[in-house]
User: What shape does this take?
Amino acid sequence: MTTDHSWIPLILIIGPVFGAIVIELLAAAKKIRAVENIAIGFLCLQFAISLPFSIRIWSGTPLLLEAYALRIDGLSALMGLLINMMVLLILIYSKRYMQREQEHGLVSIKRYRLYYTLILIFTGSMNWTVTTNHLIHLYVAMEASTLATALLVAFYRKKASLEAGYKYVLLVVVGMTFSLLGMVLIFAAVYPHLGADGLLLSRIGEVVKLIPRNIALFGVAFMTCGFACKAGLVPFHAWLPDAHSEAPSPVSALLSGLIIKLGAYALTRTVTIFAPTYHGIVIFIALLASASMLIGIMMALVQDDLKRMLAYSSVSQISYVFEGLGLGTYLGIYGGLFHLVNHTLIKALLFLSVGAIMYATGGVRRISQLGGLGKKMPVTAFCFLAGALAIGGLPPFNGFVSKFTLFMAIGEQHLYWAVAISILTGLMTLACLVRAGYLVFWAKPSQDKGVAGTPIREVPASMYAVLLLLAALCLVIGLFPNLLYPILDNATRAVLAIWSAGG
Amino acid sequence: MLSVILLFLFPVAGAILSMMVPKKRVTLVALGSVTGMLVSLIWLFLQKPPGVWRVLAISWKWMSGAAAQGVFGILLDPLSTLMLLIVVVLGFLVILYGAGYISARNREHASEEGRERHNFWLLLFIAAMIGVALSPNLLQLFFFWELTTLCSWALISHYRNDESLRAGFKALLMTFSGGLFFAAALVVLYVFTGRFDFDAISELAPRLRFWVFLFFLIAAWAKSAQFPFYTWLPDAMAAPTTVSMYLHAAAMVKAGVFLIARLTLANFTIPWLSGLIVAVCAVVTMLIALFLFFTQNDLKKLLAYSTIAHLAYVFFGLGIAMMGSKLGAYAGAMHILNHSVAKGLLFLCVGVLSYAAGTRKIDELSGVAKKCPLLAIAFICGMFALLGVPPFSGFWSKFYLLAATIQLGGVAGWLLLIPFLLEIILGFAWFLHVGHKVFFGTPSQRTLDAQPVPPSMQFALVVLIILTLVAPYAGLHLMQAMGM
Amino acid sequence: MINEQMLVTLTMAILITSVAAVEIRNLRLAAHAYLLHSLLLCAIIVSYAYITGNESLYLWAITCVLTKVIIIPWLLIRYSKMVPQNEYRPIVGFVMSVLALTVILIVFYKVFQTSITLWAPTEEAQRAPVRNLLAGSVTVFVLGIWTLLSRRDVIKTVIGVALMENGVHLILLALVPQLKETTMIGIVTNVVAVVFILLYLSADIYRIFGTTDSARLSELKR
Assistant: This one.
């Protein structure tokens, strides 16, 4: 395989951090109002960079920057494109949302700019995570993204949000320490064969069969637990609902759309390499994911808080991704990555819709206090229900295509119990979210408290444009899934190329 | 080729346009698109005169990563022609009828609000049903199948009051969970055979074949409101009458029986036991529906239970066919057409009653014949067609169903025949009673106050009356082309 | 000068100091115990550098002194001045805790020392001093987990995470002492730990909540 030397990966990482510095400098010069535009500008630039280089990679050559152990193959390109696109959309949405928070005195002007600084730093750390080719850098980059988002989770500095931030940072750091242990074990087992190159993710695949069985299984189990913690699978999910519900809504969309996906990404880079050799790993991940998707959606069914409900639904959806990626077959990885992309779009759509509801009602997010919003906010209602149907896996939305692919991938491995559980979860997801949509948009609001008397208007255009764009993407991907085929195929082949290097 | 694509594109374009044009033009757009659709159908039949049936396949790669074979295509054979006739002709009539029905003059639901929503979902539904009818494989069928579920949910919830929201949610959950069995069956089928074709089931090992077929059957039962999933259909009567007529009597619920008919006709290798399960469940459904006839005061609910019973007839015929008497499958398929026409007519009559008199309660209505003679004629024609009075449509399919059962013979055949006959006779008596009560005798106050009905609705009634007489000939012709 | 016996002794000492850091009720003293623990860790790194001749390990040792011996204990001690002197009552009583800890100590050390072939990848790692160090470091890791599970105090939580981190570092050192990359990994992960702790302690949880009991932080549990 030929490779290309390129500085683009480094630009992707440094760019947002540089943007953050610019914002801080401007803030020192008292030009606070410009920060959101600067942030959006930087992300546009990032997106503009990641688009053409992604296309270059889809022609088959990974980009390399060996001095910094950076390497972009099909999978990194997919993730990079997704990350930069989503952050850009969420920033555009944030503009009015955070302005309102600031006008209502929930956020001081100083913290207002901190929001953009943190999001840019966080984007840089995410870009690093997906472009690095180094086992330990992967750990460090993931930790960096955790720490940056912890500050965003605790952004309101209220008791509840601080507590959520604490829980988040503690649990994820502990979980990641486990994965560090796993990485160290794997490195120790690999270095006799590869020397210092044993730290390169793209080379581990060559020696998988030479690693002693016990070490491989220990290491993989530790890493899986760590990444599951980052992704919020049951039983490591305790941080997830709190963090999602207490963060500002755009940040919830980031957490659910991107941060927990990093766990899945790291899993693909490390654990999936071992799956074809050790069938036990497949079973282990399938068990973990099945339990997690079922428990997650059951918890979602009993929630009254819209954001907590969506958070638990994320627990169950990320389990689909894990299950697919853990299979280690072409179809499994393809389906897992497909669902990863789809879930990012859908969950961002749902969280931002809830954000729109909170924007319009002044922060109400309890289902029992909401009702009858459908007439006043038709666009939001449409977008929320589109998201609910998509995540439930109903054609013609995108959720159907990826879930169906996953079902076939799992069925192909003859894990029929897992297929049954995934299908059941799909039904419960649909029931849960559509019911919530009914209650919020068409049921009569309760009179004594809630939103019965307050005037409610549709959110501003810059917010609902983002919603409509995401909803349209869900529909278009659902109708023409082959649009994504070259991208996903390339990403899947990139993963397969790593472990097939060992022969 | 072009005509088939146009046939599909007209309703889709109509649906999209009706959300975009100003409210005044909505009706015009809908009528234009269904007229275009009807013309395309006629053009299609002129291109391929009856008797010349073949598979037109455009295979378009859709899910390349997961399913290597082409997914979307067109299959035009007698069975799909049968469905296509129902979908397009009744679709045209229902949009025409709806133009008069959804209006501020309607006595039951006096509101024009949501007309564009109604037309959007209805046109989308027509497109989805065309997709179902023309499916060359199970995956395409599944895709459009779920799309019809979606449309059904939106249309049942149309009035957005508590009752209709709950009914829509219930229908969505029940049909969607059935759809998930469909998905599971597809997964197993693909894992073992690598194809989604209708005849792929034959390649499976007999035991697996039974289970896969059972999964398809559960999906079909949920869609066609059969025991034990029948409860959503009566609740769905909270929808506008146009929807009840088109989705919940003529087209959508037929998707379930259509699926089983497809599978039966594509593989006569389905185990005998599955046939028995189908037939027994059909008989159970018929009897449950029969007992529930007597408790209904709402004409629409009565018709809903009758729909359940008649869908059970079709299942019954298919079950008989799986057990060995092929005639049953043809009779069942023919009954799909005959029932759609007859039940469609009856629903439209009830719609006229609620439009004109503002009620559909049996005890509030009597002597309607004096006030609206056309309505009475239409209702009686529909009723006779439904009950199987010659020369109306229902007679022919019921006749063949009975013939098939007798042909099957044996203990099973005779044991199944008795409850089937019982249901036919008792249903006959009860419907005569209800029809007599509503249309004859001294007019009630509600009837005297009735207002005139717009011509578009009257036109739809007249067309359907003619169809109840003509349908069996088309049906017989198609069945002969199929090999009866 | 530096021989196997000494490494084994250091391992034992590091175990004892970690137990002390976990069990001492007085928070300042616990922080000091942790300081001692870190110092011993640095001593082990230095002795490895001497044995293997890998000079880059000295660099790691220096960073370790900076972060683990100076910065983290300093943060902990500074924080412990703001809160009550004794830790918030742990979930498990003192006697039970010591008993459980002893059991953990003995069982894990023994199990990992005897079944070393199961999970040490190289021949070298299965021989005497490394073998003991590996068993010891796994035990430190487990002690960290135990601390997280049984303690509710914020400072103790931090010590727990730090112990886990140190356990991983010791394993790394024991398994791959001869590579430059080991130094790099050690230094980088050190920094991560410090940032985490800084973040965790900087938010003045005590001032806002009036307690350092992390179990009381449960307003969100519904």
Observations:
- The CA atoms of residues 119 and 453 of chain B lie 20 Å apart.
- The mean pLDDT of chain B is 84.
